[in-house]
Amino acid sequence: MREYTTAYSTILAARGFHHVYIDAFAGAGLNISRWSGDFVQGSPLNALQVVPPFEEFFFIDLDSGKANLLRSLVGPRSDVQIYEGDANEILLKEVFPKVRYQDYRRGLCLLDPYGLHLRWEVVKLAGQLRTIDMFLNFPIMDMNRNSLWRNPERVDESDRQRMNAFWGGESWRQAAYRLERTLFGDEEVKQENLAVVNAYCDRLRSVADFGNVATPLPMRNKRGAVVYYLLFAAQKQVAENIVESIFTKYQTRGLA
User: Which CATH superfamily hosts domain 2-148+193-250?
Assistant: First the structure.
């Protein structure tokens, strides 16, 4: 994120665009490193240190305690707006309308939802605006725990609806399961994680109208298990090329 954010701001500033940074699930501004256990700066504070700087910053979090801590860390800055509330509603109604193509505005948006708390219409609008470069943490572990069970008929209806809202419909079932004939008749057999991730990337292109989508980057925990996939989508090929070169360096991180 730091590498691309710097490259993005350098290019957009040189071209005279009013470019903004958007963090929809910003948190408190500090994280605990999975590798060292130490406190490290989160994406909001890292973004504030980018040179050349963004014109504006929009940080959103549902938790008022986290939002208040972030305010204390940021301090009094007129170029920073911190929102408390549902990121889906705030993005759709407050933030994205400020990044219109005809106003020569562009935005870099980070979507790091707490599980399946992101709605498809947010992602779709980000693509259709044609002004947004987007990083999305695709929560595959949360999906497997709550929605993508080996027996899909046993999934709770509320979790099925959350998956529908995240995906923008029920086509995730065609991606996650394949109908196979067994001794007991036709059964839905669960597919590997990448089948689901790649199907979502196809939706970013064909439904959300993003021109370019990078190869998903697996993000692993200390045991090497994939927790989520980092996705990137943009309108320009140069943006995808930059991200692909960055992702390549981290493809095997977390593996023994």
Answer: Vaccinia Virus protein VP39 (3.40.50.150)
